What we know:
Strand content: under 5%
Oligomer: single chain
Number of helices: 4
Shape: elongated
Largest sheet: none
Mean pLDDT: 82
Distance between the termini: 82 Å
Amino acid sequence: MSGEAVSLFVQARSEIFWVMLIVMAVLFFACLIRAVRGPRVADRLVSVNMIGTMVMVMIAILSLLLGEEYLLDICLIYAMASFLAVIVLAKVYIGVYEEQRLKEERIHSPNAGKTEEKADGKESAQHEHLGMD
């Protein structure tokens, strides 16, 4: 290959990377809107996960564009942090959902609290009888 062909290839590659960064930025803001508007919490969790993934891709593209390999290390660290953040948010959401579901069950069935108390009393009596406590 001649030097001119290599130069054109490098220039085309650079332009493709810039186009990819612009497309990723537009998609980033679309996911940001979905994270804010919802309508469900699951939609918000998925959009937060997508935002994290897109940021990692953008960092990787910048690493290739600028020729800086240390940005890939930052990308890996960001991937781990993003993964943990989504897991924590999901666990918090599950806890809140379970708490709301239990409240609704207690409101809709007035005998639910009495049956739970009876069941707890029977279990503790059985534990005492067997010497488990």
